[in-house]
């Protein structure tokens, strides 16, 4: 999630746990520690692929943050004896603030390395978009009232409760969407295919389903209020003929570890040379994928890995128009909204007649 949300979550937890003892200080300490794991963004790992795939790494590890919480609890119990706060209470305070950060991040699509340094792939259980005002607003209101009134516990607890209830609604919405997409996937023989179900930007009413299918992938938009309307599954190429060349490079292997089968490959001309580019299809929205990386350049019949990978700017499409059309699709399946309206025709393999 965005840093403002993480700060608000930490502040709300701080106020709920120790607001009666520490007042505003509990809120401010929570806000500071709530954003602490995201400071890894200031680390430059040497190139674009490394920077993106190392983010939410060691600083989001449950092992690292649990150790830090224990250390802070022990230190606080020694230095703040006059507060008469038990070690267990300090542990709850620091533990919840620090550990909820990566756990909330894991509810988005990006992927969070909860089990670093074990080498397990990033964890992603997408239930909320990376920015969701309806989740953040109750936290901000609760924290704001806590800071203004000085009575931190009750408003912080209410804000936290409402935000948690929103996550429960998101889980229910996702389960409903999964139930609705299953028959469509079964008709296409895609029941076992890797799938990614995630909310579209800024809401939990309209969901995007992406299904990896060998050299192709499929996209569908499924709404909570779609009723009996069957999902429209659109099919795209993902440049699989270039996948072997991409995986010959260390950075290509790293991206494959990071994004799994949800990568698209293409050749773009850069500085007069054919350049192999990989795009993470999970992030953003069809036609608006922000993460594309250079992997190799063509030399004769071979591909030579680039010395330093670069992240390429996305195509300059009208995001405002796309968001307007998405907002019009939230409460009803009509008018139809097709992902192919936003994706370059070069990738299109097939769409339903209504698209």
UniProtKB/TrEMBL annotation:
GO terms for MF: hydrolase activity
Lineage, highest ranks first: Bacteria, Pseudomonadati, Pseudomonadota, Gammaproteobacteria, Oceanospirillales
UniProt cross-references to InterPro entries, sorted A to Z: Transcription_regulator, YdjM-like
Annotated protein name in UniProt: Metal-dependent hydrolase
Protein's organism: Halomonas pelophila
Domain of life, per lineage: Bacteria
Transmembrane segments: 57-75, 87-104, 124-148, 155-173
Keywords annotated in UniProt: Hydrolase, Membrane, Transmembrane, Transmembrane helix
Classification via Pfam families: YdjM
């Amino acid at each position: 999630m965005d840093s403002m949300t993480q700060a608000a979550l930490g502040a709300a937890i701080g106020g709920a746990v120790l607001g009666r003892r520490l007042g505003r200080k509990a809120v401010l300490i929570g806000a500071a520690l709530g954003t602490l794991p995201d400071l890894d963004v200031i680390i430059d790992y040497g190139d674009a692929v490394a920077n993106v795939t190392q983010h939410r790494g060691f600083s989001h590890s449950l092992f690292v943050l649990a150790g830090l919480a224990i250390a802070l609890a022990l230190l606080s119990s020694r230095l703040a004896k006059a507060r008469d706060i038990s070690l267990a209470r300090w542990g709850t305070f620091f533990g919840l603030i620090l550990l909820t950060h990566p756990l909330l991040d894991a509810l988005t699509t990006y992927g969070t390395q909860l089990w670093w340094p074990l080498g397990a792939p990033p964890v992603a259980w997408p239930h909320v978009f990376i920015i969701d005002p309806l989740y953040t607003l109750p936290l901000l209101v609760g924290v704001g009232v806590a800071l203004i009134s000085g009575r931190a516990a009750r408003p912080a607890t209410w804000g936290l409760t409402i935000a948690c209830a929103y996550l429960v609604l998101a889980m229910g919405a996702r389960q409903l969407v999964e139930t609705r997409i299953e028959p469509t996937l079964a008709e296409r023989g895609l029941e076992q295919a890797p799938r990614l179900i995630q909310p579209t930007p800024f809401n939990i009413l309209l969901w995007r389903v992406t299904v990896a299918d060998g050299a192709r992938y499929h996209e569908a938009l499924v709404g909570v209020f779609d009723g009996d309307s069957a999902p429209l599954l659109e099919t795209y190429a993902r440049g699989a003929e270039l996948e072997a060349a991409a995986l010959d490079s260390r950075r290509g292997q790293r991206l494959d570890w990071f994004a799994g089968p949800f990568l698209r490959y293409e050749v773009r001309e850069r500085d007069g040379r054919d350049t192999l580019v990989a795009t993470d299809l999970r992030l953003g929205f069809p036609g608006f994928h922000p993460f594309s990386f250079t992997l190799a350049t063509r030399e004769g019949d071979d591909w030579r890995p680039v010395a330093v990978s670069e992240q390429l700017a996305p195509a300059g499409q009208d995001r405002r128009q796309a968001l307007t059309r998405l907002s019009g699709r939230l409460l009803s399946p009509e008018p139809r909204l097709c992902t192919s309206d936003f994706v370059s025709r070069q990738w299109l393999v097939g769409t339903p007649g209504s698209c």
